[in-house]
């Protein structure tokens, strides 16, 4: 179990698996689209069926394998579990779940930092991967459509949606490493936000496609 100080670079690697999956989804969609007509189904239907089945199977396995809290795990020895709990308690004192109370909920609901960050449309997942970003998700989901609007064919748009995720993964892991090393996050988050704003502004308002 990770302490606060050791989370950034580990979470970067873990989360970039999800980013890689998003990047590969376009490639998978291209392959599945080649099944167009198989079984009397259109290619886009096969994309929905196959990707949904993969998601459902993994979700079921995850539900039974991953514990809700460290003390409920079934893959560590008693000694290892004790070590994990002690480490978490020394770091932040919340190894065991505590009851939810109105005061605790109120405390978090009144925290302006949570609302400010949560409502921001420019949260920099590209730079700090643990930040959920509507803007980044939107670009990931609609990039093939954007490319098709630029004149590329459907096949080319799906394939061209994959390469941008390579630099994304590298940058995220490197910056998260330095964030972890120097125990500092704010500057990286601000920098990532600026990058998102500039990039999305160019995408939305640039007069020419080649920027």
From TrEMBL:
Membrane topology of this protein: Multi-pass membrane protein
GO MF terms held by the record: transmembrane transporter activity
Gene3D superfamilies: MFS general substrate transporter like domains
Location of the protein in the cell: Membrane
TM helices/strands, residue ranges: 12-32, 44-66, 156-179, 185-206
Pfam families: MFS_1 (PF07690)
The keyword Isomerase belongs to this UniProt entry's keyword annotation: no
Protein name: Major facilitator superfamily (MFS) profile domain-containing protein
Source organism (scientific name): Panaeolus cyanescens
Taxonomy of the source species: Eukaryota, Fungi, Dikarya, Basidiomycota, Agaricomycotina
